Amino acid sequence: MTPSQALQIASEKKLDLVNVAPNANPPVCRIMDYGKYRYEMQKKAKDAKKRQKVTQVKEVRLSTFIEKHDLMVKANNASKFLKGGDKVKVSIRFRGRERGHTAAGEQVMRDFAETVSEYGQIEKKPLLEGRNMTMVLAPKNNSQKEK
Fold first, then answer.
1. Which residues pair with 87 in a beta bridge?
2. Total-model pTM
3. What is the dihedral sign for C-alpha 92, 98, 104, 108?
4. Burial of 77 (0-12, 13-18, 19+ CB in 10 A)
5. What is the three-class DSSP state of 91?
């Protein structure tokens, strides 16, 4: 129908004529209450934002020659973070003569990852950057936990 006819029908029903697909041939319009439509869209966007999960990166610092019990305490904390859906950044700072024992630091990282393997997996492998060695652990997916 012609645009003038569509506008007349919309005004009779006290609704708005909204151009849905302006690039179509011919253009597609719809008769609706535009205020109500915008309200519904804002409500959906707000609902989607509410359901969205924001992941944070928590940090756990280890030392090169950490004792077994201390490693377990740090692993328990990291497990809590991973259960909560957060990523965990594990870091070791090498000081002084420790810089010659980077292999020992990497072994500590691997032991730590093995300890928390029930809740998370390695996302970024241990990497030496200057004096620091870092590794990132990501939580396991729900489908992997159920298996």
1. 57
2. 0.61
3. negative
4. middle
5. strand
Give the pLDDT confidence score for residue 77 in this predicted structure.
Answer: 92
- In whole angstroms, give the CA distance from residue 19 to residue 21: 6
Residue 106 three-state SS? helix
Instruction: Write the single-letter amino acid at 144.
Output: Q
CATH code, 111:
3.30.110.10
Residue 40 and residue 107 in one domain = no
**Phi-psi sector, 56: left (phi>0), alpha (psi -120 to 50), beta:** beta
Q: Which residues pair with 134 in a beta bridge?
A: 91, 127
What digits encode the pLDDT tens for the residues 34-65? 899 899 999 999 998 888 877 788 999 998 88
Domain that holds residue 31: 3-51
Name the domain count of the chain.
Answer: 2
Identify how many contiguous H helices and E strands the chain contains and give both numbers: 5, 6
The span from the CA of 46 to the CA of 78, in Å, is 32
- Euclidean distance between CA atoms 138 and 48, whole angstroms: 24
